[in-house]
Amino acid sequence: MAKKNVRAKGGIILPAEQPAAAGELRPVAWERRVVDTATVEVAVPEGEPPLWDVETRPQVVGKPLARLDGPVKVSGRADYTYDQHPPGLLYGKIVRSAYPHAKITRLELERARAMPGVRAVIRLDAADLQHSSAAAAAAEPGTPAAVQPRQAGGQSRNPIFAGDEIAAVAAESEEQAEDAARAVVVEYDPLPFVADIESARAPDAPRVHAGQPNVRELPAAHGEDGDRGDVHAGLLAAEARVEGEYRTPVALHNALETHGVVARWEARDKLTVWAATQGIFGVRGDLAQFFHLPPHRVRVITDYLGGGFGSKFGAGMAGIVAAWLAREAQAPVKLMYSRKEENLATGNRPSSQQQVRLGAKKDGTLTAIEVISYGTPGIGHGAGVGGAARRIYACANVRQQEHDVATNLGPAAAFRAPGWPQGSFALESALDELADKLEMDPLELRRKNYREKPFKALRRQYEIGAERIGWERRAHWQRGTGPVRRGLGMATACWPTFGGPPATARVTVQPDGTVTLTVGSQDLGGGTRMIAAQVTAEEFGLTPYQVRVELGDTRWELYGPASGGSVTVTSIAPAIRAAAWKAKNQWLEALAPGLGTTPDKLRLAGGMLHGAGAPLPFARACARLRQATISAQADRAPNYQRSLTEMYGAQFAEVEVDAETGRIRVLKIVAVHDCGRTMNRLLAESQVNGGVIMGLSYALYEERVVDRPTGRVMNTDLDFYKLAGTREIPEIEAILLDAIDPRGNNVNAKGLGEPPIVPTAAAIANAASHALGLRLRELPMTPDRVLNALAARA
Amino acid sequence: MKNQNSKRGALSRRGFLQGIGAGAGAAGVLTPAALAKLRPAAPESGSAAAREIELHVNGRARRVQVEPRVTLLDALRQRLRIRGPKRVCDRGECGACTVLFDGRPVYACMVLAVDAAGHRIETVESLGTPRRLSRLQREFVRHDAQQCGFCTPGFVTAATALLRRNPQPGEAEIREALSGNLCRCGTYPKLFAAVKAASKGGRQQRAASAGGRGGRR
Ligand code: FES
Ligand code: FES
After folding, report:
1. For residues B190 and A25, is the Cβ–Cβ distance under 8 A?
2. Same domain flag for B137 and B112
């Protein structure tokens, strides 16, 4: 691809006025301050729109505008998967194992089949699901594949966790489906199991996956973002050392809309599904494979999604079973999981036990970071602790050794910044312990050690955060002498920028003035629809409310990535801008001759076409083209320069701890973040608030509790699995800096979904430990743990 | 607050009964060997006396056929296709299913449909339409008090009840009144701001300072 070298300016845009605190209605000043600039050379591929850099002042992008779909959502008219109700709909229900490990000695479906209203009953055990590639190759399109549908692990079709799928039914009413599910007779021979890390690591422990050891060391990363140097030498060279074990719980996603699918066969080889998913194309791929269909015979629709947080990729069991039941019953089937099923079988954030050793020189320079972790992903995988120890601080000697420990519990799934909040909690707690030992201010220790990179805003973020929380008070801190003590703490956020190709967008301009943007993404709640509209509107000089957005449907064959890892905006917004820019140019070219001018003389702004006599309203200009519809499509160009900086941030917490009750109350959190160019300040603040609140909830309340003798999860509901609610929300100040690196993409986007949850628990733990003058090394920091820590000291 | 949902109501719920009946809710009580012998309990008869009742929903009388075990929430969603109230926990823990029951906010998942006959039910659909939003709904939009939006109908409904009861609530009252509702996306700060802005005090404040941030219109 031909490229053009362009000079552009990178730098950091500071909000001139600090944003209003939550609840205040202060107008945001648009005067902003550009600092830390540097000029760079960027190789821009042919066909890309003009580069944006730190001096660019878009008209629509970046504004704090209310989201496009707000009115639909607040009036209860947004249609989620859960709300789909095609005619003739049946309800599906899965029969799940009561045991963490067992042999099924009898599975009897006949009674269920005979129940009133029952239209299909299928087995999900070994008999129907054994692997056979020969059978797969010979299969008729539309017949269920003989593949193992479970996402991870599980070679045996013996149930290997309490909640494992055994059979499924579909019936005319949900009550009938429930009755039928209970009429399925299952007899078991219980087998030995492991339900916690300690027993799973024992030498003679029962194996979770037949023939595989329970403990698996994860592959190590090397290089500047991985293991490097020699930690032993680093520890020897240290003048101060700390060592400690930190523990984090298994946490449950609990998106409000559960996993589920509504499936309808249009023909023997044609399937439509509405899916509660973060990735419509992933669902399509899985279903096409399972049912031996070409991808274009499967249509996946996700208009609105009630949250996912990483747990909703792929068709999953819900998708496969719904489609399978629909096929058997020859009628559409809705299979939405109950809260209990959601919390047993659809994913979780794995636990961690981390042994951390740090070494430093007297002046605070880090000489060694070592993290050895064990965590359980249940029957799944991926219990690593993320990149905090490797990527945030400059240290010559780093080693992180991670282990998955399989247990007979539901599989882990990606959960907002997978691994990072765990790793951040351990590392940042240990850093505070080191600061204590060095008698150094904890913020100073971070400032001394963070990695400097071009267009990285961290130094500024530390500064602003410290000022907004009043960090200088910490120097002569009054903890309080009564039972209620106060403390201040902080931690650093980081997440690598992942977005890139492939992603495709199409923009269509119709003679009536309708501008339609079509993109193969889905909106999880982060506001993808709105940002897509803003980027389109920017090129056409319209308001975003004049743009029609189509997304969440595979039928247009415009690919977009699954929304996870903070990639959505970074991947699709550059494709959208390129498509909108192309469409606008084509439209101007088509229009110019009729106006007796050339396209370069024409300009779109404020809903008007300028440059040919009196300004012409956009819709009137469109009408001049009579029937002509202008349409342009563009792909996401690769990042202009391969390596991009990560997103960074800093969070500061002020807490109050009651030493008599053990209760921690968070008073205030200042969260300073960077997502490249902030596409919409209002939405970005919501993302930051959401990450902070989820992090706070993780820090103080959330923990999956397993009954060891039976291997069952005891708190699958929202009463005993406590989430932060209205009473626990502190004052949150969400502040966005724009660290603009023009070498990334044509809208300078970097992503924002994950970073805000990364440091919150660590910042709160550091503040609570500061308040108490002792270290809290286990999450969640519940009153009993606080009181035990106090008792241990006494 | 949601006093409709007494503990007795909870005990009469079908989900609870099923849990016990199938042994699924008895974790930790029985030994694995004893559990293995359990057969599924005889199902509660699916056809048990479905009867026709009249529900007064959003100003209209609607006749539906329900079994006694069917909740108001399921009757609204599955029989009447009113999809605003959401089912999230199905046991009175999250507020996503909140409806107004003779003007009071209740969890529709905790009321049996047969017990709702003859009472006045309002769902979020009756509080405004996308083109004609209520003042509260407009403030929700303006403040971005929704992300994924799945909890939003419940919050809008509960907050509407609060403002009808107390047009000028303080922040503590707002938090208290909405404490029966959960939002996993963490929209709370903006929810509080939206309710405050829609309250009497908020309106006056706004008129005085002429325009806030992020307004669509
Ligand atoms: S669904 Fe009714 S309270 Fe949660
Ligand atoms: S907006 Fe997603 S749960 Fe509240």
Report:
1. no
2. no
pLDDT band at A363 (very low <50, low <70, confident <90, very high): very high
Shortest-distance ligand to the CA of residue B148: 2
Q: Tell me what pLDDT residue A626 has.
A: 86
Phi–psi pair at A213, nearest 5 degrees: -65, 150
Q: Which residue of B has its CA nearest to A62?
A: B214
Q: Is B197 helix (H, G, I), strand (E, B) or coil?
A: helix
Structural domain of B193: 128-207
Q: Residues of A574-610 as b/e, b for ≥16 C-beta within 10 angstroms? A: bbbbbbbbbbbbbbbeebbeebeeebeebebeebbbe
In whole angstroms, give the CA distance from residue A681 to residue A169: 47
Q: Which amino acid is at B62?
A: R
CA distance B102 to A724: 30
Q: Is residue B41 part of a domain?
A: no
Q: Where does A1-46+457-496+641-794 sit in CATH, by number?
A: 3.30.365.10
- Residue A511's H or E segment, with its range, is none
Who wins on pLDDT, B47 or A164? A164
pLDDT given at position A156: 40
pTM of the model: 0.93
ipTM of the complex: 0.95
Do B132 and B122 belong to one domain?
no
Q: Which of residues 54-113 of B touch A (CB under 8 A)?
A: 67, 69-70, 74, 78, 81, 83-91, 93-94, 96
Same fold, A47-78+500-635 and A86-191+259-345: yes
Question: Which residues in chain A have Cβ-Cβ distances shorter than 8 Å to B74?
Answer: 174
CA A167 – ligand 1 centroid, Å: 27
**Pair B62, B82 in one domain:** yes
Span A504-509, mean pLDDT?
98
Q: How many A×B Cβ pairs under 8 Å?
A: 260
Cβ-defined contact of A67 to B85 (cutoff 8 Å): no
Q: For ligand 1, what atom is nearest to the CA of residue B108? A: 2
**How far apart are alpha carbons A456 and A741 in whole angstroms?**
9
Q: Which of B70, B99, B126 is the last residue of a domain?
A: B126
Ligand 2 environment, Cβ below 6 A = A 256, 307, 525; B 146-152, 183-185, 187
Return the closest-CA partner of residue A341 out of A314, A326, A321: A321
Render pLDDT for A626-645 as a digit per residue (tens, 0 to 9): 888 999 999 999 999 866 67
Q: Which of B126, B147, B171 is the last residue of a domain?
A: B126
Hey, whose CA ends up nearest to atom 4 of ligand 2? B183
Residue A678 phi, psi (nearest 5):
-70, 115
Mean per-residue pLDDT, A355-381: 98
Q: Are strands A215-217 and A118-123 parallel, antiparallel or unpaired?
A: unpaired
3-state secondary structure of A112: helix
In a domain, B91, yes or no: yes
Q: Are A502 and A520 in contact (CB under 8 A)?
A: no
Q: Quick check: B204 contacting A, CB < 8 Å? A: no
DSSP character at residue B71:
B
Question: B98 and B108 in contact (C-beta within 8 Å)?
Answer: yes
Name, in order, each residue with C-beta under 8 angstroms of A71's C-beta and a sequence gap of 6 or more. Answer: B130, B131, B133, B137, B141
Q: With pLDDT > 70 as the criterion, what percentage of chain B qualifies?
A: 71
pLDDT at residue A641, as a whole number: 86
Of A85, A257, A545, the CB nearest to B150: A257
User: Could you give the angle at the alpha carbon of A627 between the alpha carbons of A623 and A632, nearest 5°?
Assistant: 90
C-beta atoms of B43 and A115 within 8 A? yes
Q: Which atom of ligand 1 is nearest to the CA of B89?
A: 4
Min Cα separation B7/chain A (Å): 14
Judge: domain A47-78+500-635, CATH 3.40.50.10330: no
Gap between the Cα atoms of A280 and A297, Å rounded = 14
